[in-house]
UniProtKB/TrEMBL annotation:
Residues 318-571 form the RagB/SusD domain. Signal peptide: none annotated. It holds the Pfam family SusD_RagB. It is found in: Cell outer membrane. Its main location: membrane. The keyword Signal applies. The keyword Signal applies. GO terms for cellular component: cell outer membrane. Gene3D superfamilies: 1.25.40.390. Residues 84-217 form the SusD-like N-terminal domain. This is Membrane protein.
């Protein structure tokens, strides 16, 4: 019965399936919740916005990728959110309102759903699942608010109308954390670890515990764990915990273990080093169903990312962000060593030789092979400037300064056999929101911070990521200090989770944004001459970071509605 109702919902939604936007109607609440199909359709409307915050085209030309030190945005002719973050001009009047409005819109939907579930026209077992899914989705949208703004007003189960006085006092950070934890735990009790068949992709127990893991890791991190600088005492407990407490790392560690130990092996890294080193890292993003996705935005077959991240002549007219050289250099060698280690074998004359296999599956560089509709085959991307004839310097449409300001394109999650502008080549990809690799890294980070020095469990979690990546050897040097392991874990997060929306929040919760986002960032100019190719480092952008940018400003239009809604520090 539940699957049948989902099928009705899918039929009534747009082509991307139950997680895409449903059609708005003038049906009233009584009609919607007196019809089982309409009711499930209403639930699906809350799924539709999942992943909006990490969508790479958020803000029009780069999303969160371009708001941090991962990549340079495109569409620079207009003032938008990523330009504000790049230039340090973030302000409450011009910042996008999407995090605030989209989250609270769905929280209100959730409260309407929960009010009406008891009288819904379907069986008791479906009511239990629908309620659990709704509670998770409400928690998810509160987490989106928390990671952007810190503590926010909690609405409880109330459904306010426009003529009502809506509470605007911000709850403390701790109250928001505990509320989200409680909702995740409650939802998890009534959900399976993994859905199958037509229900695959709906919220599961793993998604509940995965969100809890991320939440508690953030809560234990320096920014929120007593680290925020606040001069307004009214905000001290709103933007984070007012005191630092190292025991919060243990709680984050235990939350990750709920996924690692509780699922009975249903979730694991997708590993394939037989096809080629690191093939599992590539393939996992091409599979609609896999062992690694705890939560994803489900979609129909598509070429969405190819249409954003490929070079211009490969079918892209509305591009996304382009990686900085600093992002490129985060990828070490296939022997597991960083490129600045004298023993790594890195050759600046052949900078892309023998690199970490994740590099080629994340970054398009000069002469990378990318699928093109001409001949339906992979062909080299010409990013170089041709100076073989000094009197006639030329470069193509995909070259540095023309197609990309950095000399690189993003390749993360792209399908090797899909062209952006060819109507019959698509991938079944679904966009990951929480995956098992993140849980391993959450666990490793929390446990490493809790202990005086990393133990075997920390090593195993990090080495599992490196082994799946195709590094050989993948093992880390023994006897690492806590600080040394911390840097390795942070670098593994940077590589493994690149362009999935993590970096923006990671550098903030670690409180290193004032360094990595307050510096000159670079690109590469490949120059072809009669004697070969030279790779010249170029300046791309001097990014500016102000400490107030650790949190987003609440949109001024919202603050203006009530004197009870306090603005974040510095805005």
């Amino acid at each position: 019965m539940y699957a049948a109702l989902v099928a009705l919902t899918l039929a009534s939604c747009s082509k991307q399936g139950f997680l895409d936007q449903t059609q708005s109607t003038d049906l009233n609440e009584q009609v919607v919740f007196s019809d089982s199909a309409y009711t499930i359709n209403f639930l699906s409307s809350m799924y539709a916005d999942i992943g909006f915050a990490t969508w790479p085209k958020r803000f029009g030309g780069g999303g969160l990728d371009a708001c941090t030190d991962e990549a340079e945005g495109t569409g620079l002719g207009s003032i938008n959110t990523f330009i504000q973050f790049a230039t340090g001009t973030v302000n409450s009047n011009m910042i996008t309102k999407d995090a605030w409005t989209t989250a609270y819109t769905n929280i209100r939907r959730a409260n309407i759903m929960l009010k009406n579930v008891p009288g819904a026209k379907f069986g008791a077992d479906i009511k239990v699942r629908a309620k659990a899914e709704t509670r998770f989705l409400r928690a998810y949208y509160y987490f989106v608010l928390l990671e952007h703004y810190g503590g926010v007003p909690l609405m409880g189960d109330s459904v306010y109308r426009k003529e009502d006085i809506i509470p605007a006092t911000r709850n403390t950070f701790e109250e928001c954390v505990e509320y989200i934890v409680a909702e995740c735990d409650a939802a998890a009790e009534d959900l399976p670890w993994m859905h199958i068949g037509e229900n695959y992709g709906r919220v599961s127990k793993a998604a509940c515990y995965g969100l809890k893991s991320r939440l508690l890791l953030y809560a234990a991190s320096p920014l929120f764990n007593g680290g925020a600088t606040v001069t307004d005492e009214r905000l001290r407990s709103v933007v984070g915990y007012p005191d630092a407490n190292s025991s919060r790392w243990e709680r984050a560690e235990q939350a990750a273990l709920q996924v690692m130990d509780g699922s009975g092996g249903q979730y694991a890294l997708h590993v394939d080093n037989e096809t080629e080193p690191g093939y599992g890292f590539y393939e996992v993003f091409q599979l609609r169903k896999n062992s690694e996705y705890l939560l994803a935005r489900m979609q129909a077959s598509n070429s969405d990312l190819e249409g954003i991240w490929n070079p211009p002549t490969f079918g892209v007219s509305s591009p996304g962000a382009r990686p900085y050289l600093e992002m490129v250099n985060a990828f070490g060698m296939k022997n597991g060593m960083p490129i600045d280690d004298p023993a790594s074998g890195y050759d600046p004359q052949q900078p892309y030789k023998d690199r970490d296999p994740r590099f080629a599956n994340t970054i398009t560089r000069d002469q990378s092979l990318v699928f093109h509709r001409d001949g339906l085959a992979r062909r080299p991307v010409n990013i170089y400037v041709n100076k073989t004839d000094p009197n006639n310097v030329t470069s193509g449409q995909d070259a540095v300064y023309k197609g990309t300001p950095t000399g690189y394109y993003t390749y993360k999650m792209l399908n090797r056999d899909v062209a952006a502008d060819w109507f019959n080549t698509y991938t079944p990809r679904c966009l990951p929101i929480i995956r098992y690799a993140e849980i391993l890294l959450n666990y490793a980070e929390a446990r490493n911070e809790r202990l005086a020095s990393p133990d075997q469990e920390v090593y195993q979690a990090v080495e599992a990521i490196r082994e799946r990546a195709g590094l050989s050897p993948y093992q880390l040097r023994t006897g690492l200090s806590q600080a040394e392991m911390r840097e390795i874990i942070r670098n593994e997060r940077r590589k493994e989770l690149a362009f999935e929306g993590h970096r923006f929040f990671d550098v903030r919760r670690w409180m290193i944004a004032e360094v990595v986002e307050n510096s000159q960032l670079h690109g590469t100019e490949p120059v072809r001459t009669s004697s070969g190719i030279a790779y010249q480092t170029i300046d791309v952008r001097k990014r500016v970071f102000d400490q107030r940018m650790y949190l987003w400003p609440i949109p001024q239009s919202e603050v203006a509605k009530s004197t009870d809604l306090l603005q974040n520090p510095g805005y």
